[in-house]
Task: structure prediction
Amino acid sequence: MTTTARAHTNIALVKYWGKRDAALMLPQTDSLSLTLDEFYTTTTVNFNQALNEDQFYLDGELVSANKAQKVVKFMDLVRQLSGRTEYAQITSVNNVPMAAGLASSASAFAALAGAAAKDAGLDLSLKDLSRLARRGSGSATRSVYGGLVEWHRGVDDATSFAEPVQEVPDFDIAMLAILVDTSQKKVSSRGGMQLVVETSPYYPAWREVVKRDMVAIKEAIANRDLPTIGHIAQENALRMHALNLAADPGFTYFDGQTILAMQTIDRLREEGLNCYYTMDAGPNVKVIFDPKDQDDLLNALTPLFGAERLVVAKPGPGIEFLTEPVMKF
Result:
């Protein structure tokens, strides 16, 4: 028996940037994200008595034991919860650049959580599946659901989970990814946020910023107010990245093309397009926009970045279980 699951990446509009418990992946703050249809991970899990260790294949290549430690640790948790003792063959295909600020770990661990839990015989609700996915990657807790999703920081393992705000948004919203650089980033998300929590003097203020932004953005979603949603997301991203600059030592995920994209989106908005930017732990810029402005947006950005580096995404679905397994080769 094998089980195959597909999960999509999500991009936070209000970000959590910092953990208060690294073992349980409990965040410092709440957060809210948009799941995207264009970026996803498909994973097949097969528990097999013949194996003497977990085998992890990624995009057709066997991953070394050293590099697969996070996956093996997660599978140990699934074995602990299910009572299963067999090792498993895990086969994943990523339709998203890894470690480039496009939430590849979110889709990867959400898909792994779904496939592994089901193949191990665990009958989990979506709420409990989001709690399990969180143990692999914090943002994976949101990728269990589609559309606009809130992650409750909670106070412990049981109360830190995601739930949908609008699984299918009832207003027009889209996101365009400007792929400035899809190579692996020099500062990991986990390392960056840990340094910020420990050293940035502005971190206490950040918690208050997120509290206010969460209230405001949920009100804007209820009012179908895309300009306010976009404004909140853009300012929230800038304040998150200000934490990085103020850390010790300070660092940034931006490069020159990131700044060019930010300045271009600001200019286009001033010229009348309904567009706003956000960035995560990487140089790539995501543009929140009204789909009716898509042609104008692409026409303005293509000469600067090239059509092949612009990917338009719509709100994506939650976790899906597929009948066909992922093949190793």
Remarks:
- The chain has two domains: 3-168+316-322, 174-313.
- The first strand starts at residue 3 and ends at 14.
- The two ends are 19 Å apart (CA to CA).
